[in-house]
């Protein structure tokens, strides 16, 4: 269990992020076309998991835009945005914003939040996913993790980028 805050209110997550060097937990998420997206879909590629509460908030939208720009400059790397938003909302956001370099996914019918230890267990937005980043190498091993301590703050983009570039 990890402790963070949401606008200053203490919140606990349901577990811990995977440890550096560990094999990342498998997942099945829902894509914007209602298709299943699994970790196996990215075999042989580096992956940045940009995990957040909801695309309809300013910080989450900014993170999606920023990772979309970063993805353009990171060879053999896929950025997967993960939230509990419905695929329809994610599709609308990406179409409106011109987001094309990331894969947006929904964990609305998945155990992803529990498997990655990022489900917020209490507080005003309980059951949504805590803002975090997990970077995987081409073998699906964890290179880097970040649980953002205050949900209203942006993640460390440079930390994720550096993990990819040093792999």
UniProtKB/TrEMBL annotation:
Alphabetical list of InterPro entries matching this protein: Redoxin (IPR013740), Thioredoxin-like_sf (IPR036249), Thioredoxin_domain (IPR013766), TPX (IPR002065), Tpx_CS (IPR018219), Tpx_Peroxidase_subfamily (IPR050455)
CDD domains: PRX_Atyp2cys
Pfam families per record: Redoxin
Thioredoxin domain residues: 18-167
Highest taxon, organism lineage: Bacteria
UniProt-listed Gene3D superfamilies: Glutaredoxin (3.40.30.10)
PROSITE patterns in alphabetical order: THIOREDOXIN_2, TPX
Residues annotated as catalytic: 60 (cysteine sulfenic acid (-soh) intermediate)
Disulfide-bonded cysteines: 60-94
Enzyme Commission no: 1.11.1.24
Keyword Transmembrane helix found: no
SUPFAM superfamilies in the cross-refs: Thioredoxin-like (SSF52833)
Keywords: Antioxidant, Disulfide bond, Oxidoreductase, Peroxidase, Redox-active center
Catalysed conversion reaction: a hydroperoxide + [thioredoxin]-dithiol = an alcohol + [thioredoxin]-disulfide + H2O
Record function comment: Thiol-specific peroxidase that catalyzes the reduction of hydrogen peroxide and organic hydroperoxides to water and alcohols, respectively. Plays a role in cell protection against oxidative stress by detoxifying peroxides.
Oligomeric and partner information: Homodimer.
HAMAP family membership: Tpx (MF_00269)
The protein's name in its UniProt record: Thiol peroxidase
Organism: Flaviflexus ciconiae
UniProt lineage: Bacteria, Bacillati, Actinomycetota, Actinomycetes, Actinomycetales
